Amino acid sequence: MKLIPVLLISFFLIAAKGYSQDARISFSSDDQALVKGFEWAKKQAMAYVFRGNDPVGPWYEAALPNREAFCMRDVSHQLAGAQLLGLADINKNLLSKFAAAIAESRDWCGYWEINRYNLPAPVDYKSDKDFWYNLPANFDIIDACYRAWLWTGDKTYINDPVFLNFYEKSLNEYVRRWDPDGDGLMEGCPDSTSSRGLSSYNEEKYGKVGIDLLAAQYIANLDYSKILTLRNRPAQSKDYLGRAEKIKTHINTGWWDSENKLYHHYMQYNGKWLDDKQMMSFLLRWDVVPEKRAPAVTDHLISVVSATGMEMNTYYPLETYRFGKAEEAYKLLVRLVSPDLKRREYPEVSFAAIETFAMGLMGIKADAATLTIRTKSRLTSATAWAQLKNMPVFDGTITVMHEGHLKSTLTNNTGSLIKWEIQGKNGSIRIFPVKSGETKQVHL
For the whole model, what pTM was predicted? Predict the structure, then answer.
């Protein structure tokens, strides 16, 4: 699908309205492949943003194009890119819609996909007994909410009753409803004719449990443990941390294929394994994989890129950067924004690319709890220097520049004193305070 005129019109209308944060972020570098790729990704992503008078409120497209809708997995993955594009308010609106939709009548599922009319998308929902739902979704939304908090410091994600109800119901009633054997681990719907309760984002109907479901359940428990710590609930926080650790141990013992040095994907209802190892990217994304196993997992994902669907391809560049393979990650990022890539107009592609520029290439992470910005240059020999300017974070913006692995600069345009934590190429970490309005340069 080519970028259609109505979406271009949307982009220019947004710019004309003057939303203070929308699309202010910019990227500059001596590497023109990256510059052109970023400019395309920014323009394409903003073309999917709608700030008109739709019943659902401000939203961005996060589903198959032309559905005029947003689904739970896509929003969870597009969230960081949207934050960087100045769309924190839209992230909160979409996440709140999903959180409010959870219901006992749907066995504590919500709506997988919501359209611009503030209704469950008809293509996925017929009734509370007949609808499409991927079980990792509730947990993915919990992780998205926690990550939104880290970037913004918006206490809605920590204190709002609608969000808290969603976290509690998803990690308790939801789990019990989809855990027929009572072992604390969820299972998909055994009815192969039903899509109401698929056990993996790979959406096969014959899997009892998908490893991405377990990994999602792990990260959601871990995130909620951290939220409870922020809420000064130490005993409850410890409980959810224990649940998370139990699931992580289960994954790394029962699901590790020692012969192939990779993880299994599906446990079928007949007790046999069904493997589609592209889904291991979720294990990397949610930090389930021990350090000693990560190289084998990352190498495998890189080897299957050409045979992987577009949706899953969008996860690979960031995780490849994060797990220490910058040269390979650079190639994956350039490929993701290349005009030659088929289906690159799929909404997730451009948002994921923006995320990868910031969190992968530039190694930027935010932590609102401590007002910390972490950076790590992952530039390769193809790129002498790179700068991301006006990235929305906390109550303002920051600008980060890396000059190879020799020097980094941070400008603090928030209203707070920021703690800047810099990780060098050798893993060493140094910490510097950066005052509001200050620019600090550090030799690495």
Answer: 0.94
